[in-house]
Specification:
Shape: globular
Number of helices: 3
Structural class: alpha+beta
Mean pLDDT: 77
Helix content: 10-25%
Strand content: 25-35%
Radius of gyration: 27 Å
Order of helices and strands: HEEEEEEEEEEEEHH
Number of strands: 12
Low-confidence stretches: 17-26, 183-191
Length: 203
């Protein structure tokens, strides 16, 4: 400063950036349905937990249930459906059927022959193939190893090794009363095996 005896002036503080409030929908995408791995890419914001069409649901008790739908959507609830959380199925294909034996063991199937199995309640899913690209029409399971499915081509398949291999069974006749298990029982002995699985899965 010039002149005598005067104190130097204090420099003006640098302007600060404006504070922008961030809403809860944009604060975190952890656990949301995203186009990339590890919550990367485009992530679903509303409605939550996702907005794809749901094709099927199943409950093993009053609390634990699952729902599946388009774009590989798998949702789970542990409070009777009050809240739902997304699970990573690992597939972009539409899923149409879901069956759980208990709170840990479940099977999912859908378009292009996609079949998935979990033994930890859906935390992880393993892909299986019955050797066809047909869409799955119906699905059932007796335990972690035994499951059956039918396709829109009127074909049936059974596995006894957790989906490692599938065996084709004769097609079922059209059932007049909608009882698919009874329809299979009316066919060849090999189809009775599938009927047994149907019965066990329905218990």
């Amino acid at each position: 400063a010039c002149g005598g005896g005067g104190s130097e002036s204090t420099p003006a503080a640098a302007p600060t950036a404006p504070v922008v409030a961030v809403g809860p929908d944009f604060a975190s995408v952890t656990g949301r349905a995203c186009s990339g791995a590890a919550s990367a890419g485009w992530c679903w914001q509303q409605p939550l937990p996702q907005g794809n069409a749901i094709a099927d649901t199943t409950f093993v008790d009053d609390s634990h249930g699952w729902a599946v739908g388009d774009a590989g959507s798998v949702l789970a609830t542990a409070d009777g459906g009050l809240t739902w959380s997304g699970q990573s199925s690992g597939t972009p294909l539409a899923l149409a059927k879901v069956r759980f034996v208990d709170a840990r063991i479940g099977w999912v199937a859908g378009s292009y022959g996609e079949v998935l199995r979990t033994t930890d309640g859906g935390t992880t899913w393993q892909r299986s193939s019955f050797g066809r690209n047909d869409a799955v029409q119906d699905l059932g399971a007796a335990d972690a190893n035994a499951a059956w499915l039918t396709t829109f081509s009127n074909e049936g398949y059974v596995t006894h090794d957790g989906g490692v291999s599938w065996r084709k069974v004769p097609p079922a006749p059209v059932s007049t009363d909608g009882d698919l298990a009874r329809a299979f029982e009316a066919t060849a002995p090999v189809s009775a095996e599938l009927a047994r699985l149907l019965g066990e899965a329905a218990r």
